[in-house]
Amino acid sequence: MGDDYWKSEAGQFLAGSRRYFRAAHILRTSKDWGVELQSPTLHLIAHGIELLCKFPLISLGNSQESVRRKYGHDVSTLWGLSENAALRATVYHEAHLAWTAARDSGKWPHDDFSDEADRVIDKAVDDLGHLNGKNSNFALRYTLEKDTLAPRPAFLIETFGRVAERMVMNPRFLDF
Predict the structure, then answer these.
(1) Three-state DSSP class for 13?
(2) Which pTM was predicted?
(3) Of 20, 40, 151, 161, which one is least surrounded by beta carbons within 10 A?
């Protein structure tokens, strides 16, 4: 891929996705990590997933404007599109690796890791879709209601961040 690729709409979506996951990683691993950084971190993750899910659509020739009009910021719908089947399979594979590593590390003794990693990913994307959408009054952008349950940022950053990194190294990685 030449430098021109990274100036294209598709290249910008892919590079942007990686930037958002990197920023989320920085916040999540910050010495200041705590409740007040969870919402901004989840917002970065949701936007990273959105860009990653829009990348195949843009790469297949859809304009940024048509994708925006049709899907907006709806990460749940974007995630389920047939055009994202290869992305989902890749994310599920990475999720399984991250889930197994987390379970085997012993760092989270209160989690039995009984859920399947792909189900955890699907639920997390749905939860982020809700928190990022109008039904929650755009909670990730504005305010979360007290005691709102949200997905695990570290697991999502690790899983989606790895996929974004691999795709930046080889934008044809998914070969959709």
Answers:
(1) helix
(2) 0.91
(3) 40
Would you say 168 and 14 are in contact if contact means Cβ atoms under 8 Å apart? yes
Q: What sections of the chain are H helices per DSSP?
A: 3-7, 9-28, 35-59, 64-71, 75-80, 85-105, 117-131, 153-169
Judge whether 164 and 48 are in contact, CB under 8 Å: yes
pLDDT at 122: 96
pLDDT-based confidence at 6, cuts 50/70/90?
A: confident
Distance between CA atoms of residues 158 and 160, nearest Å: 6
Please write the tens of the pLDDT for every residue from 122-146.
999 999 999 988 888 888 888 777 7
Contact at 8 Å (CB) between 49 and 79? yes
Write out the two tokens for 80.
């389920």
Closest CA to 131 of 119, 155, 148: 148
66: tokens are 């048509």
Q: Are 14 and 54 in contact (CB under 8 A)?
A: no
